[in-house]
Amino acid sequence: ELNRIKKDRDEREQREKEKQELERIRNMTDEERRLEFLKNPKLQVNKGPKGRYKFLQKYYHKGAFFMDDEDNLYKRDYAEPTLEDHFDKTILPKVMQVKHFGRSGRTKYTHLVDQDTTDASSAWAQESAINHKFYYSKAAGRKNL
Predict the structure, then answer these.
(1) Are residues 52 and 26 in the same domain?
(2) Are 30 and 38 in contact (CB under 8 A)?
């Protein structure tokens, strides 16, 4: 029973300290707050090594739950290649360098960087009254000077 009372009191004191710290930070100016966070950065407990992704490697998110637990399981490198990611896809022909090659739902492009997406014949590029009205009334950053 004494342990429970002590634990409750410690938790209450911890909450009070957090409230006071939060209030202290809220009362600071932006410049003071920035300097404070530069001097005392928050420590991330489960920060693992950050790896590099290979060409067309599948991305796995490490998740957001249980990240406050200190466990080696959470510190592993999530950028490691798994299964088919171990193969070097750059030596394949250009046609086969796509995700899910040969499947019905595969993507056609690896990146849009190497694709020319400007289509001058599209409806958006035509000079018409409707487009003119849209650009100068609703489109962002366009004002009639």
Answers:
(1) no
(2) no
CB 60 within 8 A of CB 78: yes
Q: What is the pLDDT of residues 29-68, one digit of tens each?
A: 888 888 887 787 665 555 666 677 777 777 777 776 766 6
Q: Any idea which residue has 């990240």 for tokens? A: 67
CB within 8 Å of 4: residues ≥ 6 apart: none
Same domain flag for 67 and 26 = no
- Measured between alpha carbons, how far is 95 from 90 in angstroms, rounded to an integer? 11
* Residue 51 near residue 77, CB atoms below 8 Å: yes
- Give the pLDDT confidence of 3-17 residue by residue, as tens digits: 899 999 999 999 999
